[in-house]
Predict the 3D structure of the following.
Amino acid sequence: QVQVVESGGGLVQPGESLRLSCAASGSMFSIYGMGWYRQAPGKEREFVAAITWSATRTYYADSVKGRFTISRDNAKDTVYLQMNSLKPEDTALYSCAAVERKASGNIWPPRSRDCDYWGQGTQVTVSS
């Protein structure tokens, strides 16, 4: 079992920055990667960014490429999502998920249904 806990959300103005954190614990040896997803009111959950646990591979949604950066702190088992130049359309509940290593191989980037463990989410609101 793996537990993930997000933090760092809040209310910011357009153009400002936020850094989200995702602290993971438990049987981390089984984890292949971590991903960030978001869901705005009335919309389906969408992929934002992902990183392999070895931190050798990252992937970003086109909508955040160049503005968001995903990274990992090995010592803390924590994944970060640095969000710069935030826009009102970035407003959503941001959730972190852990993906277990699959014997048949892992799809990359992971789709929501590929994720095995989810946090409760942290709200990001971008508004003037």
Observations:
- The mean pLDDT is 95.
- The two ends are 41 Å apart (CA to CA).
